[in-house]
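Sample entry (167 residues):
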Amino acid sequence: MVGAQLRDTAQELAAVLWREHTVYRERSGGMVIRGEHVRRWISLAPAGGRDEILVRAGRILDGGTTAPARSEAVVPLSAGTGVLAATCRRLLADAAADAAADAARPAPDREADGRPGEPRKSRKARKARKAARRNGRGRHTGFGSWVILVCVVGVIALFAYSSAMHG
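Predicted structure, serialized as tokens:
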């Protein structure tokens, strides 16, 4: 009964909020209303109480994926479509304000290894370095590798010497 009532409520709510919308059922049994033209979504799900629904709102990102919910509220299902629509508009406004705050925030500098003033290497430079390593013209063998190599050769030589002396 709750599923059918939730579906009907979502259909009514979608028509009140947006002219263009898509309504579908989530895997968890809740209903989602997507407004692609406003790049927002609303989710209606049964809440802890018998006559309550959890309303969540968030943004639709580039490529159509959804960002996590920015805000949520619990509303009595018996409150009616008007109260539910008002709650959704408030949650959508919160999501829009958060999106505007995110857009106003300056993007972090792209730095290599967190060191300021040192720009990241370009993709072309990384590809060239990778190709050089593949073709045997990459980085030289480091000092630590030479030390390990000399130690291994020394152990083998010591074993050979002791075997030759003790028969």
